Amino acid sequence: MVTGGVTKFAKAHPSMDFRLMVKRAYDYALRGIPNLTRDRIDGTRISYFSDHFSRQLKAASMVQDYLGLNPKGSVRIEWGGATGGECFQAAYEAVASGRMDVCLAAGYETMSRVKTWKGNEFIALASDTNFDFPLGGFYTGYYALMVVRHIYEYLRRSRFAHVTDEREAQRLAIAEGTRIMSLVSVKNHLNALHNPYAQYPKKLTVDDVLKSEMISYPLTREQICTMSDGAAVAVLCDEARAREFTDRPIRVLGVGCGTDTMRLADRPFGQVPLMPHEKAADYVDLDYPGVHSFRAGRQAGLEAYRMAGVEDPVKELDFIELHDAYASSEIQTYEDLGLCRYGEGYAFTESGAPFLKGFDYGFPVPEAGRIPVNPSGGLIACGHPVGATGLMQAVFAQWQLQGTIKKHFGDGTLQIKNAHRGAIHSHAGTGSSVTVSILERGYRP
Amino acid sequence: MTAPRAFSKFREVEAELERSGAALFRGDDGQESLVIDFPYSIRYIHSYAEDTPFFLGLAEGKLRGSRCTRKSCGFVYATPRSHCMVCGSATAWMEMPTRGRIHSWTTCHFGSEAFLKETPYNLALVEFDGAGSLLMVRLKECSESEIYVGMPVEARFDPSPRYSIRDVWFVPASDARR
Predict the structure, then answer these.
(1) Can you tell me the ipTM of this complex?
(2) B27 touches A at CB < 8 Å
(3) CA distance, residue B30 to nearest chain A CA (Å)
(4) B80 and B132 part of one domain
(5) Which of B40, B104, B165 lies closest to A145 in CB terms?
(6) Which of A127, A427, B163, B173 has the most Cβ atoms closer than 10 angstroms to its Cβ?
(7) What CATH number should be reported for the domain whose range is A3-115?
(8) pTM higher than 0.90, yes or no?
């Protein structure tokens, strides 16, 4: 990866349609690289999630057209919430296969074209329309079902094992779980105060998060990402071209993708695919993945780590841009990606390990800086224009690895010192598909 | 026709569209964008195809699951599928118990547009003895403070079926702690 660009994500960009948004991100990306002119691009991979939001079929052709890239090859990529992450990997594959020397990955979403609750309906159409959608058509409801079980598996049975009244124990566990999820929400919103691209940067307290509007018990508004308009692009190329274009290229060290059943109800009860630091004995009583964990995320992580030669992600990665559509799914994903064992996500959050060092979050974060997660603010604070989101993560990761956060953000506070290797994680459809890509600095500083 | 009115807040543009069908959005830079109301509706001709017996079953007050026909597998699906995802063999229809337990649950205070008027409503994943998968349903006749994982529940069926998953819902069983 040699360059990227992002538009500021916003509730609505009525003065730009999707073509112009992509063009703005594209121009930003190319501006910094004099040798990378339009004629050097061999083709594109273009991503947007929903034809319903666009109300324009084959909208990717119109992006290709607007950028003046005809008659070069192009394919539209769609993979639910992981659309942007999958687009990044599709561009990687186009180059890795030798089909292209230089490939542009471009993504966008214009979710403001319908009202929020209609938008929720479109998103929920990515659930089984025979069995799931007619029950309420509501993704937040599905993620609430998943986290209630996660809390039952991992907090009720540990921290509240001593409470004999079952209902009381479950209430206490849910209160504890939502308190810890709020730490994630505070983190991501606060980090975003230094990210000019973010849609909802703000300083919140745990109490603010808990007292925000209840959307689907126990998930409150501040624990959930919102609808956005936005675009992002990334340019990938082979090594020879990369060195010609920039003296600070980023190497794609590993890619992984995993899947799971569309229906939550079908997630089979089997065994955990183990990370190198885990043993089968850790999980003898665990029915996996159930609805409490994302097997697709575990699979994507395993594949990407294997390809990249990563054995201990906490030690070998300097940061992760993680698909936190919900504060709950960020905690669930810590476990899937092997940042801690299954069952340790809440304690891992409380340890402060995924927080940035030197920030005042309003509560103690003793291990801050161990493996910062969502230094940019993530989806919760940056927004989630679906087709752009995974590419936005790639761009933020590139800037971290190049040490150019200050240049692009106009504020270097979020720069992780000497960030050498990071991961981006894109997640779709209640965990039905997930991508993980490992990026590394491809030059000696 | 009068010229469209201009607004600097997108929210006001949305409201104006409901009144007059067109509005101008004025950005911070003074640029004006014309925004119009653009309705779209569609009636789908939706076949339940291989899932049909499940939905016909609901109309008869029955919950139909499916069981893998391969002896060495025999996986039981509470949400039926006509081929086994474990081994790929065909499944056979079977009648499920109408009593189960809450595997997980939530109370939705919002929903997508079509369901907003029904809020708040409860969703539950129900587990059944002998089944390897779950069933997602609406849970009625109980409130957020009463529901718990493990709660025994039983099915109720709509006497005037609409051939939808909504023809069945669950309620707390008589021996559930309320």
Answers:
(1) 0.96
(2) yes
(3) 10
(4) yes
(5) B104
(6) A427
(7) 3.40.47.10
(8) yes
